[in-house]
What does this fold into?
Amino acid sequence: MQVAKLTLNEWLNRLESLHPKAIDMGLERVAAVGIKLGLTFTCPVITVGGTNGKGSTCAMLESMLLQGGYHVGLYTSPHLLHFNERARIDGQIASDEELCLAFEAVEAARDGISLTYFEFTTLAILKRFADAKLDAVILEVGLGGRLDAVNIIDADVAIVTSVDLDHMDYLGDTREKIGFEKAGIFRPQRTAICSDPSPPASLTEHAQAIGADLWLFGRDFNYSGDRQQWNYGGRDQRRNSLADPSLRGANQLLNASAALAALEALRDRLPLGAQEVRTGLVLVELPGRFQVLPGRPSVILDVAHNPHAAATLAQNLDNMGFHPETYAVFGAMSDKDIAGVISQLKDRIDHWYLTDLPLPRAASAEAIAAVLQASGVKEGRHGGFEKTIRSFTTPLQAYTEAKRHAGENDRIAVFGSFLTVAGVMAEKKAV
It folds into this structure.
């Protein structure tokens, strides 16, 4: 009997219940199916891990390589509005039909092997890329590195952007433990790049132990410059008079330097001229990373959901100039360090509009309010400034109320979980 074809939404709904755990760390099952799929790449593969900065680094790599005329595949996760965003070829998101065909291939190959949603979808996108005969593949790590599904592919260049405390239930509760997990994407005799200015010893020691060619920020590559332009300096290559990346934020030159170090390491296989690099950095786009929407009041979208990212958001808010009042639309998962995020931002926010999120593991708005109060944020007038804390059932409700109360010279920072930003972005149609 002919089995009915599934739509993309039907596939995604099915995959959510295919495995008993949402996250099941380990590569045995996913590697076995990968072998059956015959996943091999003859083109350079760049894998990008790290606590923060992964998405920006991937986007810059893609943009510069596309300017060079290369046929490029980019895999990122999670998505903001549509699953298809996770798979891009030549800057275009995958179609429903392409993804469904890839899902069918994985289903045929797995032969009863149980896969999580992330493992299944990662394999499908890798299969789509392997069939596309690409010039370069960029893979963003989902969680950690050593046991993440993308790590079944041996990267020619592996980048760790930063190491900080996040996903501690899975990766460990110290930077040393987390650094070791992230260094798991490094390979012997291949380029391993770390753009964290203070990498944990576990990362550098692992790279040395396996014989990886380790490039460290400040030792093997760096950047310099001023507000007008900046310069990249690597082991054997300099790129001068570069314009700032179009992505806003304090850490973007660090991310851009890591991307340029990767391209330096691959310059014999993926040569890029000065103009292609400059144009790629100017044209790069990445929704939801300190994305400032046009109009008034100023609206900032940022998927900052851990203390390290919140500290960067705080610095970026400081660099925006004066705004009479700042409103926050904030929602987060319960397994995040919510108190740590709040501690970085509480002195910069006047009005907290907290939101529930549509996932069982999300922290409720009321629970976040309790953390705020425990962190010393009290409602009422203090020193001439009014502080408010309000709770809502959806990000859009919270945003709508914030927009109603904010003056045209104020600003609204929408941050936290991807679901918080996506809930507002869908309404604003910001992508």
About this structure: The chain has a mean pLDDT of 92. The two ends are 42 Å apart (CA to CA). The domain at 8-283 is CATH 3.40.1190.10 (UDP-N-acetylmuramoyl-L-alanine:D-glutamate ligase).
